Amino acid sequence: MAKMKFFLLYQFHYINKNKTWTEAQQYCREKHTDLATVTNMKDMKRLNNISAGYQSEAWIGLISKPAFTRTWFWSLPGVEFSESETNWNPGEPNDGGNQGSENCVIVNKNLSWIDNSCQTPNHFICYNDKKTWQEAQSYCRENHTDLISGTKQLQDGAVKNVMDSRSDYSHIGLFRDTWRWSDISSFSFRHWNNDFNYPESNSGQCATTVFNDGGRWTNVDCDNKKPFICYEDKVILIKENKTWEDALTYCRDHYHDLVTITNMDDQRWIQEKVKNASTPFVWIGLHYIWSLRFWVWVSDEEVSYENWASPGQMGDCDVSGAMETGGGHKWFKRNDSDLFNFICSKK
């Protein structure tokens, strides 16, 4: 078995200088990549680890402005909301009679969606208790994965069986807000503290992570001066069209290697990058060894995580792995001579 190697696709840097959010954003963009984008609970643990010894709060790259349009998000990172795949109850979403206060979603026994106040206690799918939407999200993330997210999960027969046993409503992982990440990524992950009026009073504010509160976030005026956390991107999209071998050579000459994807979090990070590609696919560091009949990563990492468009992909002579830049960002085998953009990893 190949020796396991682990490469972080991005790194966090705690900057112990007091700056406004805008000043912090400018510093991060000049010195690193941008203010920290937080994609999952693993990221939160990493933030807490680098903050050891600092009993304060720090800016992250989340900002809300009155000009931002409220947008629906699924709580589970990587699941994108689609207006064409909804199941709203007739007359919904009605936003509480246009009061602008119903930003979370519950489902009835028929699994129809109803917008509702995020502060109203309801049952939720992963636990038989009543909590607010924020409390339910926190519980699910700490004890399972997340609140149920996406139409495919909601169509699961087990969910229907759970709802058939209930006479009331349950939270699902659909919410809307006006918050945006500084790097313009679409990650839906939020980690507000339980006292935050989520997400109803969030305009004209910036987010901080509070270290003595487990890293949970609060919103404050962007003109306050605080330390901040930058992230350094360890991957880069090259918008040049090359064969797989030429892409591999380019990455090794200019950066480190073609990118290796070892888990779902890596996949979600790369998905954000490939959205900006100019070709329908991008090369990744996955190659098929015809003589041995199996796929390998150019980094010698074991192919344990897979995201093929169809399971059990068998290769052919002179084929390699590419990720689609749209749709579900699945992996496809493509002829090595095809010309695509590609993703390099940095040292």
From TrEMBL:
Please indicate if the UniProt record lists Repeat as a keyword: no
| Entry keyword Coiled coil | no
Q: Which residues form the C-type lectin domain?
A: 7-127, 126-231, 231-345
SUPFAM superfamilies linked: C-type lectin-like
Determine the domain of life of the protein's source.
Answer: Eukaryota
UniProt keywords, alphabetically? Disulfide bond
InterPro entries linked to this entry: C-type_lectin-like, C-type_lectin-like/link_sf, C-type_lectin_CS, CTDL_fold
Q: Which Pfam families match?
A: Lectin_C
Q: What is this protein called?
A: C-type lectin domain-containing protein
Naturally occurring in which organism (per UniProt): Xiphophorus maculatus (Southern platyfish)
Q: What is the lineage of its organism?
A: Eukaryota, Metazoa, Chordata, Craniata, Vertebrata
